[in-house]
Amino acid sequence: MTQTVALSPLGRADGSASYTDNGYTVIAAVNGPVEVQRRDEIPEEAAIDVVLRPATGVGSVRERHLESIIEKTLRQVILTSTHPRTLIQVTLQVVATPGEHMATGDLHQSASNLSLLPALLQTSILALLSTSIPMTMTLTSTLIAVSSSGELLAAPSLKALKEAISAHVLSFSSHGELLVAESEGAFDMHTWDQIYGKAEQLCRSRSTLDRNEAEEVNMDSSEPMSLEDSLRNVIEEKAARDQRWKEG
Asked: Which of the ends of the chain has fewer CB neighbours closer than 10 A, N or C?
């Protein structure tokens, strides 16, 4: 499914973004650096607060778990040392979920956490890019499921995810580092190596893979654009718009 991106859809936030992929639509708002309560103050860097609001109902343990993953990931991405004793707030609102979900918004337990995580991470990064908060890197994230026959499924449907023997979310930085590796289900190291290669192929730009890596994943010009290339296009379009505004 093609991703849909909108930068700065919210007028009152310092930065915001909307992102749609694999049946999920998420809106993120970023505010900061702002004043932080003394009990949450960190002397040498900014504190990061992530709030996730589900599409329906109120947050539960599931949302708290996802918030924790996102907060730890963003701490690696944001240059927090430039704004000590402040707070950066990231609020994520799930707007739409795949049509295969129940009307209550509940997910099958095996798919409860991982199916939404890539969209949350991508929306957070896009919202940060629309602010002036300094970052050390960007990231791209994807979901891979392993079917009962051993087939690797990229961005699987909820039905495929329920029937899979394992599911994995991997996120790569713009420097090529693996920042997030969350898995559910049973798998061996051989399968993990295949999952890693597939996720790297989906996430990373062809220009950042060396010749050996490119041969290993059998990349060619007919394959679709990577998530990193798509993100780069969004950044370039934003820079062009900002430049036109300054020149105007």
From this structure: C
pLDDT tens digits, residue range 131-164?
A: 989 999 999 999 999 999 999 999 998 889 889 9
Those residues with Cβ within 8 angstroms of residue 93's Cβ, 6 or more apart along the chain or in another chain: 26, 27, 28, 29, 53
- Asked if 172 and 178 count as a contact pair (C-beta separation under 8 A), the reply is yes
Residue 210 to residues 8, 200, 221, Cα–Cα distance (Å): 35, 12, 15
Displacement of CA 102 from its chain's centroid (Å): 24
Number of C-beta neighbours around residue 137 at 10 A = 16
Give the C-alpha separation, 24 to 100, whole Å.
Answer: 11
Quickly count: other Cβ atoms within 10 Å of residue 146's Cβ.
23
Alpha helices in the chain (DSSP H): 61-77, 117-129, 158-163, 189-203, 211-216, 227-247
Q: Is the pLDDT of residue 248 over 80?
A: no
Nearest in space to 171 (alpha carbons), one of 145, 138, 123, 193: 138
